[in-house]
């Protein structure tokens, strides 16, 4: 193959395709434009039944993209695509397939705003996963205050009567999102964990208060038992009355 371009001129290569299959190479140029002479003969062939790699560039009015992948004679098997629609947006697509009879499909995308989507091409967050996640460890950093203030002596612990009334009316704990809210807006794990921690701390305070009340009642019961025993002893021994 030989490529010749007259000097001092610019060649705009709108579409090019390079494929490597086995020991053969296929090269294609299309819509080459310049203001002077250009000489871009390209020869090659691609076998009908083989595996190989390819590099495909596209630079047309509606979009620009660069694709690199592996393919057989029928389908793309894996591909990375850099895409731009002639605006400020530029995305990167990752495509794979585990089927011998179907082409690669989009598995992951990095969008122009930095959002990453796995299993979705429209991520609405920095990382959006449409599927299960298995991780050895997950750490969530948050600027939400950890509810240790619950143990502050000045913290006003809601009465159990107020909590009971709230639960009867709303069918969920105070400050905890309702089932409808979670279904509509999703679940913020950091916020929910801290809210649950707050409820555990409040529950701890209720139990501590109950223990104090129980201790007082036990002391009263012990005192009452002593008085009852004294009364029984006196009633069984009338001489103690004189």
Plain-language structure description:
The chain is an alpha+beta fold and 242 residues long. It is built from three helices and eleven strands. It has two domains: 4-129, no CATH class; 147-237, no CATH class. The protein has helices at 160-170, 179-185, 189-236, and strands at 4-5, 11-21, 24-34, 38-39, 52-59, 64-71, 76-84, 90-96, 105-110, 116-118, 127-129. Strand 7 (76-84) and strand 8 (90-96) form a beta hairpin.
H and E order: EEEEEEEEEEEHHH
Mean pLDDT: 80
Class per helix and strand makeup? alpha+beta
- Cα(first) to Cα(last) distance is 133 Å
The portion of residues forming beta strands comes to 25-35%
Share of helix, binned: 25-40%
Number of domains: 2
Q: Tell me the radius of gyration.
A: 38 Å
The strands making up the biggest β-sheet line up spatially as 3-2-5-6-7-8-9-10-11
Query: Number of DSSP helices?
Result: 3
List low-confidence stretches: 1-16, 20-24, 31-48
Task: Using brief descriptors, characterize the structure shown.
alpha+beta, 3 helices, disordered N terminus, 9-stranded mixed β-sheet, rod-shaped, two-stranded antiparallel sheet, 2 domains, 242 residues
């Amino acid at each position: 193959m030989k490529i010749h371009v007259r000097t001092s001129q610019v060649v705009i290569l709108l579409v090019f395709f390079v494929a490597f299959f086995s020991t053969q190479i296929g090269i294609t140029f299309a819509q080459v434009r310049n203001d002077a002479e250009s000489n871009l003969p390209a020869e090659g062939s691609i076998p009908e039944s083989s595996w190989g790699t390819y590099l495909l560039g596209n630079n047309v009015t509606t979009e620009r993209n660069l694709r690199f992948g592996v393919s057989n004679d029928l389908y793309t098997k894996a591909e990375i695509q850099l895409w731009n629609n002639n605006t400020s947006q530029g995305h990167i697509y990752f495509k794979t397939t585990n089927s011998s009879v179907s082409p690669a499909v989009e598995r992951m995308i990095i969008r122009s705003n930095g959002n990453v989507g796995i299993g979705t091409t429209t991520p609405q967050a920095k990382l959006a996963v449409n599927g299960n996640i298995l991780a050895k460890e997950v750490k969530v950093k948050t600027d939400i205050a950890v509810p240790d203030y619950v143990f502050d002596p000045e913290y006003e612990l809601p009465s159990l009567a107020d909590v009971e009334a709230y639960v009867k009316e709303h069918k969920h704990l105070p400050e905890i999102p309702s089932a409808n809210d979670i279904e509509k807006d999703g679940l913020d794990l950091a916020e929910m964990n801290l809210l649950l921690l707050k409820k555990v701390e409040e529950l701890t305070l209720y139990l501590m208060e109950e223990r104090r009340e129980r201790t007082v009642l036990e002391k009263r019961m012990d005192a009452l038992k002593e008085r009852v025993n004294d009364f029984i002893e006196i009633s069984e021994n009338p001489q103690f009355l004189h």
